[in-house]
Amino acid sequence: QTALQGIILLPLRAICITFILLLAWLSASIATFCQPGRGFLPLKGWRRRMIQTALSGLTRTAYFMMGFQVKVKGKVASLSDAPIFVAAPHSSFFDAIICALTGMPSIVSRAENLSTPVFGTILSSLQPVAVSRQDPDSRKNTVAEITRRALSRGQWPQVI
């Protein structure tokens, strides 16, 4: 009976997750379409709310469809209390759960990730701090950008 359930559930889950991923891509595309100051100015108004609500909800739903149920203990620090927070070790697809549960903050990511089909659009909507491994000044530039965002007095979302 469990093999039969797997035969039925696996394709259903894959279809649902694919549909959720396409909805997330569509939401990210709409929120960043004709974005003023693309990448240099923070998203504001309906664009930011759309990223926070739609992408957060879709990410949670996708993980639920994969069989993960996440419970949060405690309270997420507000932007004024913690403009920067750290999630470690960040080396897997579980990082997206942290982003969804914390209101879709900006992240630090490899610049190459932004050119990935579908995921790159979704990642770009989070307005990441892009790290270029080819640029010798990348570390200094990344620290400067994180500092600039942290000192923006709430104009930029939290950085994870």
From TrEMBL:
GO MF terms held by the record: 1-acylglycerophosphocholine O-acyltransferase activity; lysophosphatidic acid acyltransferase activity
InterPro entries attached to this UniProt entry: Plipid/glycerol_acylTrfase
Location of the protein in the cell: Membrane
Keyword Acyltransferase: yes
Domain Phospholipid/glycerol acyltransferase: 70-156
Gene Ontology cellular component list: endoplasmic reticulum; membrane
GO biological process: lipid metabolic process
Keywords for this protein: Acyltransferase, Lipid metabolism, Membrane, Transferase, Transmembrane, Transmembrane helix
Membrane-crossing segments per the record: 12-34
Predominant location category: membrane
Family: Belongs to the 1-acyl-sn-glycerol-3-phosphate acyltransferase family.
Protein name in the entry: PCAT2 acyltransferase
